[in-house]
Amino acid sequence: MKTFFNILLAFSFVLLPFAESGATIKVHRLAGKVTVVTGKTETPLKVGQVLNPGSTVVIPDGAKLEIINDVTGKIYESTSNGRITISRMMLSADSHSADNTGNVHGQMRRFDSGGQNKNKRVYVETGMVKRSMGEYDPEAGSMELDIPTLAGYLKNVIAGRLTSKPMPVELTHSRTEQIGMQFRLVNSMEFPIYFNVLKIHKESDGKQKITISEVGQPTGSYVILPQQALSRENFKAIPEDERHILVATHCLFDMDRLLELINTEETSAEGPDVELPIYIEEL
Amino acid sequence: MSLREKYRHSKLLKCIVKAFGITMLAFALSLLLVQPLSFSAMSVFAPPEKDDFSISDFYAQVADKRPTRYNDLDIVIVDIGALDREGIASLIEEISLCGPRCVGLDVMFEEPRIPAVDSLLLNAIAANPGIVLPLNVAECGDNKFKISERPFFYKSIGGVEYGAANLPGKFRGSTIREFAISYPLDNGKTLPSFPVAIAKKVDSEAVKRLKDRGNNLETIDYPSREFNIIHPEELYDHADELTGKIVLVGAVTDIGDMHASPVNGYSSGIEIHALALSTVLGGRYYSSTSKIHDWLLAWILCYLVTLLGLLVDVRVKGLVVRILQFVLVYLAVQIGYSLYVDHRMIINFSYTLLMVTFGLFAADIWNGCTGLNDLIRKRLKKKHTSENISLDKSSK
């Protein structure tokens, strides 16, 4: 008799507000294939679907259903699996929430139990840093571009004798005299990309000089790992006669040696092997 | 009969005094363990940054796992995702068209960038009168703060309110349990915290009630509360959900703005601000007992257990005392949780757990010392008697 009155009381507290306020119950979150029974058919539930307290849902093992009262914002989570009506699910969630002793016991059990995975470890976190010119570079440490070849190729492209292959990664850039320049490179390849930005300008004696651009990497080169992006900006006005060239390769190259060679007259200006993985684009 | 004689003949009096001594010893041992500047077992075995546990975290975790929760219907979070300054400017402009009640933008624009984009941003901000923006403050001694980070357009746009977005914690990276109400500045003014600045815009009565409590830090009501989070690409489809709501704009998944909370290791700053704001608007404040009261309660309970243990006169006394201890520890956890979840009261029962646990150890030390004292006294008495006998012999 006492249990009956308890159920009646809980029923009046949980369900009467729905009747009075005209609130609707909607599916808030779903995990797994939860279905609603209409007649003799079961149709999969969707987030946002409207249900009524009398609706019967089937929650399979491992699945979870959360419903929300859109007037009060109260969310009810399924506490058991199987066939259950929405009203029963709400009553069950309410009584579980009010069961302080049971909730504390549940947390204590969670502290201790890890189930079968108790001693299992996942190895997803890495305790290391990735630096552009760090010595630790297993991906491309053994590979290095031949700098005289790269210097020769670069000279030809700068002089307009050769056209570089199109950039294989996503490169967006803009440059105006007033606001400076900016670029963004997204590595959509499956291996790292090494690149730097060179500045071609004329010195006071009229000689052409190639140095590292303000948006370039002053020491070494940038390294962008797969799926990573990098953007750089420089807001200083750029003289019209100044050129900025982005040089990208698949493997490491010695930037200092490249600058040294490219600024000398002796560098061969012959066209290198066109299959070389060198990509050049003017910013 | 003198008091001394009374003590000799009364078992109850002996037990009362002994229980007092044992409890004091348990108290001393507990103090030794929890005092940060004393020799502490914790400081030997654990790094200081691990010293970040509060029993209320346990209660919050239990409460958060209940199968009923609330979706806050007044506050909506709009995630900026990976939007750049231009994207954020358009987002704010779109939000203004949705008719929000108030907007809080938890993004710092410290330096001007491209003038055209900055102009868009300033126009978008101006289109949201009463928008609340964040500042960062730093301590400058004497419990005063100075503004350490501000947007480049600080005080140049009318109708913009500012709040300090700092999250108070025990140390960098510690669990964020509380929010500050305001920060006294070095120029004599007071800067409200980011959530309180927003609350001021929407419900000044709620802020008055908050200030009337007289605290400068309040516990955030973390458990069982969530918010609708709308991503930039979803804004068009969910525009009506922003009408009349408090809209908080910020990064939900930015790794640089993730903080530990009692219920989650990775809560974004904007969600923590939203929870603090929800706490203020809902008036869901927690009251805590002072440290002295927590220790007093621990002392009394430990004393009662010790006294009962001494008074129990059965053969399985040891077992009874241990069961009594276990029951008390269990009850402390259960009562603590019930007070937290049903009455929003935080009683730090960790001192009770500590003292009750140390009670037995203290009793063992006490008994050991008493035994040693008896032994020494017996030896001294024996020596004294044998010396007297030899003196008698020599005098004869």
| Number of helical segments with 4 or more residues of chain B | 12
H/E element sequence of chain B? HHHHEHEHEEEEEEHHEEEEEHEHHEH
Unreliable segments of 5+ consecutive residues of chain A:
129-142
Percent of residues in β-strands of chain A: 25-35%
- Outline the biggest β-sheet of chain B: 4 strands, parallel
Q: Tell me the strand percentage band of chain B.
A: 15-25%
Total strands of chain A: the figure is 16
User: What's the β-strand tally of chain B?
Assistant: 15
> Hey, which two chains have the biggest interface?
A-B, 24 and 24 residues
Coarse shape of chain A: elongated
| Alpha carbon gap, first and last residue of chain A | 83 Å
Mean of all residue-level pLDDT scores of chain A: 76
Q: What summary fits the major beta sheet of chain A?
A: 5 strands, antiparallel
Features:
heterodimer, A: 283 residues, alpha+beta, four-stranded antiparallel β-sheet, 5 helices, 16 strands, B: 396 residues, alpha/beta, four-stranded parallel β-sheet, three-stranded mixed β-sheet, 12 helices, 50% helix
Give me the secondary-structure topology:
The complex is a heterodimer of chains A (283) and B (396).
Chain A: H1 2-21, E1 25-31, E2 35-38, E3 41-44, E4 50-51, E5 56-59, E6 64-69, E7 74-77, E8 82-85, H2 86-98, H3 100-112, H4 147-159, E9 170-176, E10 180-186, E11 193-202, E12 208-212, E13 222-224, E14 229-234, E15 243-249, H5 255-262, E16 278-282
Antiparallel strand pairs in A: 1-4, 1-6, 2-3, 2-5, 5-8, 6-7, 9-10, 10-14, 11-12, 11-13, 11-15, 15-16
Chain B: H1 3-9, H2 11-34, H3 41-45, H4 55-64, E1 68-79, H5 85-97, E2 102-105, H6 115-126, E3 132-139, E4 145-149, E5 161-164, E6 178-180, E7 182-184, E8 190-192, H7 194-202, H8 204-212, E9 217-219, E10 225-230, E11 246-250, E12 258-259, E13 267-268, H9 269-282, E14 287-288, H10 291-311, H11 317-343, E15 345-346, H12 350-395
Parallel strand pairs in B: 1-10, 1-11, 2-11, 3-5, 14-15
Antiparallel strand pairs in B: 3-4, 6-9, 7-8, 12-13
Helix pairs in contact in B: 2-10, 2-12, 4-11, 5-6, 7-8, 7-9, 10-11, 10-12, 11-12
